[in-house]
Amino acid sequence: MNLKTCLLIGAPVDSGKRRRGCLMGPAALRVAGLADELRTLGHAVRDLGDVTPPAPRATEGPSHVFALAETVAWTEALIPAARDAMALGLPVFLGGDHSLSLGSVAGVATHAAQAGRPQFLLWLDAHSDFHTPQSTNSGHLHGTPVAYVTGQPGFEAFPPLPAPISEENVCLLGIRSVDRAESQALAQRDLTVHDMRHIDETGIAAPLRAFLDRVAKADGLLHVSLDVDFLDPAIAPAVGTTVPGGATFREAHLAMEMIHDSGLLSSLDIVELNPFLDERGRTASLMVDLVASAMGRRVFDRPTQSFA
Fold first, then answer.
1. What are the tens digits of pLDDT across the range 186-232?
2. Which residue from 55, 54, 139 is spatially nearest to 99, judged by alpha carbons?
3. How far apart are the C-alpha atoms of 274 and 22, rounded to whole Å?
4. Cβ contact 182:128 at 8 Å
5. Catalytic member of 127, 140, 223, 260
6. What's the distance, CA 129 to chain centroid?
7. Which of 129, 182, 232, 269 is catalytic?
8. What does the alpha-carbon distance between residue 45 and residue 48 come to, in Å, rounded to a whole number?
9. 295 CB contacts (<8 Å, ≥6 apart)?
10. CA-to-CA dists, residue 40 to 37, 244, 261, angstroms
11. Active site residue 229
12. Residue 242 has pLDDT above 90, yes or no
């Protein structure tokens, strides 16, 4: 196994949507034993604590956008935190809602550009998150990170991107809830989108393997952004954006195991965990298990668990 120094970075972002609770996500993942699981696999672990954003300042933007100034402040803090962490090991960003990826992904892409390597992004999510502040009807900025990090217009309130990710280097996997505006925008772009219909027809391995092969051929860095709602809500209820028909337990673990086998993972987000909606820590434990699979745990190494 290629052992890593895993850097746990809490990002208790709770401004990307109106439903509160994701700020408790980093603590829940720590309590669920993430650091111990990684150490058991032989990795070194450094918990860098939680990122602290600057005080929000007056920010101009569409009036319907929720908590714009607060989310901009988080992005300003997370970009340098992510960029600098890449030089120290493999950062694991503990969320926090998905607006944290505005900063985490922009930061790791900045590091990749400085290293002269292409940045790739695997987006495991029920949603494409390709809105802009102008196109979102809900006003929720957790639905905008993919648009921001690929350099789409409309993000003037946010920090200028040092290194936008090329659209062809982005793969959205597990999609099953896309607004009309996003669908129209994606149809005009070069992102790879595999919805659950595609996975139903081909399985999850084929499209994921094709993307990982592209990353390897380009000698790219791979950031994986794992949203709880990528999973079916029957196995992962602790998320405020549940969409039926998500990835099964085995599909999710297979994806993580394939990511590990590729040897390409360079950074990771775990987002949208809302412990207030969980059932005795069930979802937090599952997310820890999935990270363990991404970091080398095999099927035969998985312990029996009880939620009693």
1. 999 999 999 999 999 999 999 999 999 999 999 999 999 999 999 99
2. 139
3. 5
4. yes
5. 127
6. 11
7. 129
8. 9
9. 4, 6, 38, 41, 43, 260, 265
10. 5, 34, 18
11. yes
12. no
Q: CATH 3.40.1110.10: does it fit domain 5-299?
A: no
> Tokens at residue 11, please?
């990002």
Active site residue 125: yes
How many C-beta neighbours within 10 Å does residue 219 have?
10
Give catalytic status of residue 98 as yes or no: yes
CA distance 289 to 287: 5
Q: Which of 111, 142, 223, 253 is catalytic?
A: 142
User: What's the DSSP call for residue 64?
Assistant: T
Residues with Cβ within 8 Å of residue 191, at least 6 apart in sequence: 130, 146, 150, 167, 168, 170, 171, 172
- Contact partners, residue 209, CB within 8 Å, separation at least 6: 258
The model carries a pTM of 0.96
Beta bridge partners of residue 247, listed in sequence order = 231
Q: Is 7 helix (H, G, I), strand (E, B) or coil?
A: strand
272 is catalytic: yes
Task: Tell me the two tokens of residue 304.
Answer: 């029996």
Q: Read off the amino acid at residue 31.
A: V
Q: What is the pLDDT at residue 306?
A: 53
Active site residue 142: yes
